[in-house]
Prior knowledge:
By secondary structure, the protein is α/β, with parallel strands linked by helices. It contains 7 helices and 10 strands.
Amino acid sequence: xxxxxxxxxxxxxxxxxxxxxxxxxxxxxxxxxxxxxxxxxxxxxxxxxxxxxxxxxxxxxxxxxxxxxxxxxxxxxxxxxxxxxxxxxxxxxxxxxxxxxxxxxxxxxxxxxxxxxxxxxxxxxxxxxxxxxxxxxxxxxxxxxxxxxxxxxxxxxxxxxxxxxxxxxxxxxxxxxxxxxxxxxxxxxxxxxxxxxxxxxxxxxxxxxxxxxxxxxxxxxxxxxxxxxxxxxxxxxxxxxxxxxxxxxxxxxxxx
Length: 256
């Protein structure tokens, strides 16, 4: 088998995936909070592969997108040792097929580039990708497949945790749609406030971007909370939680 191992290293989670050749066979999500050793990542990856009934010898290539440099080096070493292949790392010198039309293209995160590549390849442009990760990011793609820029705002979990940490009498609450927009106690008031500010803010931001573009660009949701938030935002055209992994697969194929 000619399988490709893809890794998306974010500030909160590390997502691993296997493609054969254009189909996602399996994926797993790890916490990034504690950086593990090469040995620990190898043990965990072997366990994941075993669950998916995949022999490590079937992995013929690998690619990494990362915003955490320390974790990048460890995962690179793990891939070399476990699969005997040198992984591609999304960054300078990698062919993406996406012109980056920003003031400083090197500032654009590897995950955002992967999202842009996948969104344009799979759905065309113009498009807006909203990634629900540690931060909530908005990436804008032109009809010609150019990366135009976007927005970065605090992630949903960061906002919720900040409310709990900074207000002494407020408890932690789960993100869920409340029964009413009018809370009748502290918990339901917090849930209503978080839910409607998140949903309303996303819808307003997407509409503002569409207004600037002068067209009704497709809105695509991805990231760890895409399946939780996406269905409630009626403005989304597509929900694809694996968009970043798909982008890595496409970039790998363009560089192999």
